Amino acid sequence: MTASNLAHTQPQTAFPAAPDLDESVINDFATQLRGQLLRAGDEGYEQARRVWNGMIDRYPLLIARCTCAEDVITSVNFARTHQLLVAVRGGGHQVAGHATCDNGLVIDLSPMKEIEIDPEARTARVGPGNTWGDLDRATQTYGLATPGGAVSDTGIAGLTLGGGFGWLRNKYGLACDNLLSVEIVTAGGRHLRASETENPELFWGIRGGGGNFGVVTSFEYKLYQVGPEMIFCFAFHHGEKATEALRFFRDYTATAPDEVGVLAVLGVFPPGAEAFPHEVHGLPYVLFASTYVGSPQEGERRLQPLREFSTPLVDFSGRMSYVQMQTVFDEDYPNGLRYYWKSTNLLELSDEAIGVIVEQAQRQPSPLSTTDIWHNAGAIARMDPNKSAFRGRDVPYLVSAEANWVEPGDDEANISWVRGFLKTLQPLAEGGSYLNFAGFQEEGDELMKAAFAEQYQRLVELKKQYDPTNLFRLNQNIRSDP
Ligand SMILES: Cc1cc2nc3c(=O)[nH]c(=O)nc-3n(C[C@H](O)[C@H](O)[C@H](O)COP(=O)(O)OP(=O)(O)OC[C@H]3O[C@@H](n4cnc5c(N)ncnc54)[C@H](O)[C@@H]3O)c2cc1C
How far is the CA of 475 from the centre of ligand 1 (A)? Predict the structure, then answer.
């Protein structure tokens, strides 16, 4: 691999040099925190500097393991005063690895795990260090849930701030649509509450606008009665029928009720994967993964066509608990593998688009990779688009090319596959994308302008108000002076 090719396949973030901080200044900072302050060489530093994506290998100057909102205020004030680069860590699941950095301060929220549920009011107040698994287990104690992600290890924070697609999405909306309020520390170190009635413009911006405006120290969600038993369709059809399968998926989703949350996934049964019978190893598949938010009996009837499209090669469909259902994809995404995912919006799943998707999917260099097509409709589309910064509510299909591989020597082939895939699909696409599946966000302002479109300027105005110097810039970054 040439040096220029290598540069092309690394996250493009330029990190400033670490400022020269006096030992006494750092010690003073450490004594103000209730949580730990970690530096290179400290026990726990090595683990705390790493994120889920094994491509990211960064060495922060300091890691503040915050245990409360006051720790966050102290950390933000310290970073601003000493002009330190800031990274904010929730679950550490973002592909670009913005939850860590070289030479700067990581505001690590992972110790902030409090969860307070009001079963009567059907609300949950949730600390930013929780994962969806943490929250699902707590809410299901009362037979309740809020729409989250499809992998239980993902952080509630980054997923919610960027939008949040999960199994309940068409019935109850995005994760961010179910926020009732947040508490947030702004770049100036103020601790504010934002809701429909308090700082409503800030509340508009954080629902889809990511971590641009501050560090959220508490999320309040609306809950719904869900489960405990769910029906889950997990039927793998032969990949040689991929074109017909995606046409079927288009027709099925055109009339599916909001209770159905369905995903079509194109991939290959990985050779050696013990979960699958030996005879299918190496074969391409189209997986229909779906649930039904309602009675399992009715769900079985509604999801049956997804299982009967053909005789599946493998069919793991069945009833399971909501908590278990939320973990079915966990094993596919272990910490430390190399990942590069990127998405694009489609207004229509035309025959032409299906042709491109099937052809490009077949080119995946790694057997661990997949192409995911999310069907998004119902409650997502019904929400007033001006109520939150999330954009793309009228987009029924989100296509995400997800490269997952092991060897650093395969970086270029895998990243090129994803980029080539999206470039080929681009003439048929809507122009926007989902910023929680945005590769290394290497296109910078152009990516943000395309993704936020008519919302972009309003976000710039909000950035000017809450973070004019771009203290919070390791994120889906909106600059105050684009
Ligand atoms: C295995 C896997 C499965 C996924 N599945 C889904 C899915 O089903 N649906 C979906 O919509 N997305 C999904 N995603 C994408 C996911 O939404 C994003 O990766 C998201 O950024 C993860 O949030 P996090 O807190 O874990 O990430 P982190 O890497 O910790 O944070 C990402 C960014 O969010 C910001 N941030 C985090 N916490 C805060 C905070 N408290 N205050 C302010 N800013 C903050 C920061 O800018 C940070 O850089 C998945 C990702 C992975 C890796």
Answer: 10
Residue nearest atom 6 of ligand 1, based on CA coordinates: 149
Q: Which residue's C-alpha comes closest to atom 29 of ligand 1?
A: 92
Note whether 68 and 133 are same-domain residues.
no
Ligand 1 center from residue 361 Cα (angstroms):
25
pTM: 0.96
Among protein residues, the one with the nearest Cα to ligand 1's atom 34 is: 158
CA quadruple 192, 198, 201, 206: dihedral sign: positive
Q: Is the CB of 94 under 6 A from ligand 1?
A: yes
One domain for residues 301 and 409:
yes
Residue 12, domain member (yes or no): no
Cα angle 456, 175, 290 (rounded to 5 degrees) comes to 120
Token pair of 131 as six digits: 């994962």
Q: Is residue 448 part of a domain?
A: no
Domain assignment of residue 126, given as a range: 115-225+458-466
pLDDT for 227-273, tens place per residue?
Answer: 999 999 999 999 999 999 999 999 999 999 999 999 999 999 999 88
